[in-house]
Amino acid sequence: MWSPAPLCALGRRRPGPSAPLQPLTRLLRREYREKTPIRLLHGEYREYRELLLSGQGWGRTQPLPPRRFVSDKPKSRRHPKTFPVLDGRVPAVYRHVFEENLRNSEAVIKRYSELLEKVKKGGGENAILRHTRRNKKLFVRERLRLLLDQEDFLELSPLAGLDMPYGDVPAAGCLTGIGRICGIWCVFIASDATVKGGTIYPIGVKKQLRAQEIAMENRLLSVHLVDSGGAFLPLQSELFPDKLHGGRIFYNEAIMSAMGLPQVAVVCGSCVAGGAYIPTMAEESVIIDKIGTLFLAGPPLVKAATGEDVSPEDLGGARLHSQVSGCSDHFAPSEEEAYVCIRNVVSALNCHPVPEWDREPDSPLYSPEELLGLAPLDYSCTLPVKLILSRLVDGSRFQEFKATYGTTLVTGFGHVEGHLVGMVANNGELAHDAALKGSHFVQLCGQRGIPILFLQNTAPQPAGPASISECGRSFSPNFLFLWPNARVALVDSRHFPTVPPAGDWAGGELELKQLQAKLEEESSAFYSSSRLWDDGIILPQDTRKVIAQCLEIMEQKKFQAVSPHPHPIIRM
């Protein structure tokens, strides 16, 4: 995860004691409440957090600096290889714990892989066949293959929407993530019309809002692939009327435009009701012939209201909007040509990619596959956190800060694929001295403009806000990921009493067991990720790669600053 400096926390999040956390909590709380600029990477400042948190109008964007680009010439990023080397060997005394953790990791990764395969099928094989053969459309993952550069992209919250109270909504009905287009990191939001007919569920609204938040925090341009039937009306009370419901998507579009963050769209299917607002509020949009339609109310509603029979193409087809209404800027005869067109649009946005640095990073001295044995089955199976750090940082080199003070929290500096990063990692129950040490270290990183990676593994007893104060979700980290073994809860269900306590407890043993089972289910990483309490589950052995991707994504904002527009682009 990432936060003010920006910060990052990933790994296991568990509850911990409350009293020792005051120094660290006060620090993070102060940084978010004060309206003074917050120090960012390489000395850059951001004052627009007031704007995002206050809900004020476009006028708040005026103090922002003009968009400009600094030199994009590649520079040497070789860092001195003088940091001490961590001893990452697993002591023989811990071998049985390592093996127990390994067996648990294999089991939870198996479940994760099964869920991921389920999600990749969208609405199912029959829905995909209808979408591709009858409707002559490309499946959403094929669309992304044509849109993005030929390299890996970072998909966000792929398990969102599973096992919800209203049923499964695979991937929340839309794919979101960050990938490169013409070398430029972009946030993408792509509708999957094979899921629930392309209608938007409450979890889908939440996922799109999170993608927009990431775009604003990291100053990334956005690309929308819209193929939506509008809101799922039976759940309209959960996705329409409130402040952070569907209307916030359009509000964010306006704010991002005023911030100078480009947004472009492809109408690659039906865009009905709220779905029609997204491409018409974008800076540039492409509509695809025969399959792209754009209207607030479709032919059936027109028939009901006026008695008039009208075809989708005549009401809001590609030729109408590119030749008559002007709602679309580009007409594409086919999907393939649409993604070529939108890539050309991105290349004309005057955005520069991150230069190719001469980093030449060293790999860790220890295998990342061994992280499977270091991911704890539960808190009692925790091994020294430096064993994890030695498998994440370049050359297993780590410059520790206050090594002999507050030893239940490890703080220090390392490099991840050449990026300098501060690290805050739990190494036992967080005591007052450890919290004070963490507070001091966070301030140092803020002063120096160094991103911070939090590795959370907090003690289960007593219950407390340790994981929150270590840049939990409520502190708005730039990114937050979980390992599949992670448990997220205020109390650990495994420490929950199953015998009724003495006193005024009115329930019986059965009620306690039911409550324990409920807590057990709700604290799993899969439950968390399906509800978008995080940005996705990542495999332990992929952690270094994901951290490096996030650091590079965040680095792109150094090469542009937002423009002080008094208002967004208004197309109508």
TrEMBL record:
Pathway assigned in UniProt: Amino-acid degradation; L-leucine degradation; (S)-3-hydroxy-3-methylglutaryl-CoA from 3-isovaleryl-CoA: step 2/3
Stretches for region Disordered: 63-82
Limits of the CoA carboxyltransferase N-terminal domain: 105-361
SUPFAM superfamilies (UniProt xref): ClpP/crotonase
Domain of life: Eukaryota
One term under GO cellular component: mitochondrion
Annotated EC: 6.4.1.4
Enzyme kind, highest EC tier: ligase
InterPro entries: AcCoA_carboxyl_beta, ClpP/crotonase-like_dom_sf, COA_CT_N, MCCB/AccD1-like
Reactions catalysed, as given in the entry: 3-methylbut-2-enoyl-CoA + hydrogencarbonate + ATP = 3-methyl-(2E)-glutaconyl-CoA + ADP + phosphate + H(+)
GO MF annotation list: methylcrotonoyl-CoA carboxylase activity
Biological-process GO terms, alphabetical: L-leucine catabolic process
Name of the protein in question: methylcrotonoyl-CoA carboxylase
